[in-house]
Write a structure and sequence with these properties.
Layout lengths: L4 H7 L1 H9 L1 E5 L3 H12 L4 E5 L24 H12 L4 E5 L8 H5 L5 E4 L4 H14 L3 E4 L11 E5 L7 H12 L7 E5 L12 H11 L10 H19 L1
Parallel strand pairs: 1-2, 1-4, 2-3, 4-5, 5-7
Antiparallel strand pairs: 6-7
């Protein structure tokens, strides 16, 4: 197809065919997950399952690739699905607006995707998802904490159990080791120390997030280039793994 002719020039027809046939499941379509989906779609990946329970809010506009004035209030899975199909009308996209947990996770993973992307930002659901993926022997790429970071040169990739600095990675390692998992989870993380002065959100923004998310959680600031590079790096790892 003409729209993908430039990437075919770089990777060749056979490799591009692999991307067209690839099945990717993305859990979490916040700033990181949406950018991952964007890059995979623009690279020709042909099959997506998108999982997220949230709607786009005004506070997403600074970092979410699909967040604009016209998309406020739309489910993130629908916004990302529409964008993927606008990039590649021939793509197959399943949009699941739900909170992934033990009641529905297995049915989603039963599709046996080629790669599972974990871009969930809540520790409990993230940890149990990674455990389930590992038990099934599926390939996974997981995003660690991108919030409160401003240095894109501090972004790294590697095994979750060999990361440094990232508090989220440390908590995940502790959880997984208690369950006998000690290696084998590829992740993107940052070695930058977060700025604790940025931890507290303005009251009006906190209320806005609370309204749309429907449950209490920490509100963390984000720097758009960092969340974008996290998502783009995950997409790059996925593409290289597929090829």
């Amino acid at each position: 197809m003409e729209r993908f002719s430039r990437i075919v020039q770089v990777i060749g027809e056979d490799s591009f065919t692999k991307l067209q046939k690839a099945r990717i499941t993305i859990f979490g379509l916040g700033a990181v997950g949406a950018w991952t989906a964007e890059m995979l779609a623009r690279s020709g990946v042909g099959h997506f399952t998108l999982v997220d329970f949230d709607n786009i809010a005004k506070t997403n506009i600074n970092r979410h690739v699909c967040a604009t004035e016209s998309t406020i209030g739309i489910p993130k899975v629908e916004a990302v699905k529409n964008r993927i199909l606008d990039i590649n009308p021939k793509a197959e996209v399943k949009a699941l607006k739900l909170f992934a947990d033990y009641t529905n996770r297995d049915a989603i993973l039963d599709e046996n995707p080629d790669i599972v992307i974990d871009a969930i930002d809540s520790l409990g659901p993230k940890a149990s998802l990674l455990e389930a993926i590992h038990r099934r022997g599926l390939r996974a790429i997981s995003s660690m904490g991108a919030a409160l970071k401003t240095d894109i040169t501090a972004i790294r990739t590697g095994d979750l159990f060999k990361t440094t600095v990232c508090p989220l990675a440390r908590s995940l390692r502790k959880y997984l080791r208690r369950r006998g998992i000690n290696s084998g989870i590829l992740c993107v993380y940052s070695t930058e120390l977060p700025d604790n002065e940025a931890l507290k959100a303005p009251e009006i923004e906190a209320e806005d997030e609370q309204l749309h998310r429907g449950r209490e959680r920490n509100i963390l600031g984000s720097y758009p280039p960092v969340t974008a590079v996290f998502g783009i790096t995950i997409a790059d790892l996925a593409i290289k793994s597929l090829l």
